[in-house]
Specification:
The chain is about 20% helix and about 30% strand. The protein has about 120 residues and is an alpha+beta fold. The longest helix is centred in the middle third of the chain and has 15 residues, at about 35-50. The termini are far apart.
């Protein structure tokens, strides 16, 4: 695993498009980018509170990434939010991982008690 700082494009329902420059974990063997939900939501909440407080708590989708020069154009205002889709690298697949809970777990279904 490696770390990569990339500009991620996030769509917040119903109509907010945000670009967040975040560090993500990157696996070059699997070409997999990993964002931690808590870090993403904290940065997204901070950004939304500054620009669109009515969007706080809405559902969102990380659409893809931008190249660093395109992010610089967005930050300077040379590239509008509508123009982002021309330079967007959208994700091929979305996966959600849940942490493994270690310990003894009963995998047998519960026994049904006979009717009396």
């Amino acid at each position: 695993m490696r770390s990569r700082k990339l500009p991620f494009v996030v769509h917040v329902d119903p109509h907010l498009l945000s670009v967040l420059n975040m560090t993500a974990r990157y696996c070059p063997n699997d070409e997999l980018l990993i964002l931690h939900k808590d870090k993403l939501e904290n940065l997204l909440a901070f950004t939304a509170a500054q620009s669109a407080p009515e969007m706080l708590g809405n559902s969102y989708l990380v659409v893809g990434t931008l190249e660093h020069n395109a992010y610089a154009q967005v930050a300077s205002g040379a590239l509008t939010m509508g123009g982002i889709f021309g330079v967007l690298h959208d994700f091929q697949e979305y996966l959600q991982f849940e942490p493994v809970h270690y310990g003894w777990v009963n995998t047998d279904p519960p026994e049904e008690k006979p009717a009396e």
